[in-house]
């Protein structure tokens, strides 16, 4: 007698069913490194290789950072894995990066076979408690049949909370045959555009009244503006309010707009720091600013916050007026309900401040240097970059330098480790960028300290023929930290690192490379990078630069006393100097070849700004 039920019931290995759930959510590649406790999933990856590409990174931290970068660049969930024990612990840095930057990531964690659990087996340990803080969803799979369901649920939770979901998988479960049924809950509903909250007419009118009453308003722009940069420029012009960008909003408003003053704080333009320091109304729109305690506490001002998450109100400053609204929708409504104002001396002075700053940056970029300085490198990047190029920028001085010198527009994609600021995020971001956008040009920019942490994964670029342009700014110094140590009374400690021949290291991995030591060598090096990457191969430029510090505009201080604007230099600047040594503003400018810069009091006087 035939068992009809058994004959009709198709089965599938549980790990294959799990991977097909992941595929149903639009994932086409996954980062990880094999281990014995993950072999059932490795077997499934081989079965699914035509639908899901396995990217073999050389360190789990790189895989987790790459998955986080994938999510930041695309908005889709990034997926990574690690085996039991050290494979799992190695993932944590990248997963915390995803958590802090609100990126949806799925982490699959190997565990010893269920029959060996609780026997102090090799590499066995309680993994879920380790991920409790980093994860929005954190589960140990209890049965083979539940494996695809738990992973589907994990993906939903990661998307819901824009965070990390962790699934720990006993290795033997993945081999078990389970019913071949649709386990995924993915549907077109998941791709709906969700309308955000909308400001009321009364809220917009109150906002406009507060702007009218202000003498020196400024809009602090966050990435919540999304695709509304052009509309925000229109509002900025109409109401004569200059824009200061948070770091993650770079590129959402064209750098070329005269009212875009760039970033504030340390990775800043002079204009942005100065204008923020004298503002009497700060309007934060779609912005989460982690340096608020440094910038928002320098003086009193009225504070308006516009955000689609009302839980953010008052997070960074005492609130005078909160508007629960989608950022772009608010801007559109403010445009509809406002009247254009006459040209403002304050706005004109702010734009002149930024133009003066840009002229200074252009001078630095265009002058010849031997030994090489960093600014001409960015001139070459801007020269050869495609309009829609993707940039992965590692932590350190290159964040400051990229914010100041790299030309970005809404057509570009770019990624950094923002709030967690994990050194070594550059290569992972470039891997993610090239895999997710295979038809785009991809740049990886890193200093020698950050690059050294992950340079083994250059071989991953080679293995998968990823035509990434790697630019290593090498000065044998942890220069970002060196600058911080200059601002406290101490001798330099622990910041000088041994130089390496990164071009030779790259060649040892089969990657074409070149070393440059003067600005005259840059054009040919970048032309070669273009030639090689257009042929489908990665390339590395080892740029041996000086360890000079770029001008620390955060050390400019402004006060208004008896109706007069006074600019001075912070006492923390050059903190180890003799007690009798002081810096005037001209002295400070001269130290950085910035004699062409004008102080804000000069610019206010030129443009007739009344305090």
TrEMBL record:
Coiled coil: none annotated. It is an enzyme of class 1 (oxidoreductase). Residues 205-332 form the Thiamine pyrophosphate enzyme central domain. Its EC number is 1.2.3.3. It holds the Pfam family TPP_enzyme_N. CDD domains: TPP_POX, TPP_PYR_POX. Residues 17-125 form the Thiamine pyrophosphate enzyme N-terminal TPP-binding domain. Residues 394-542 form the Thiamine pyrophosphate enzyme TPP-binding domain. PROSITE patterns: TPP_ENZYMES (PS00187). Keywords: Oxidoreductase, Pyruvate, Thiamine pyrophosphate. One of its GO terms (molecular function) is magnesium ion binding. Belongs to the TPP enzyme family. This is Pyruvate oxidase. The gene is pox.
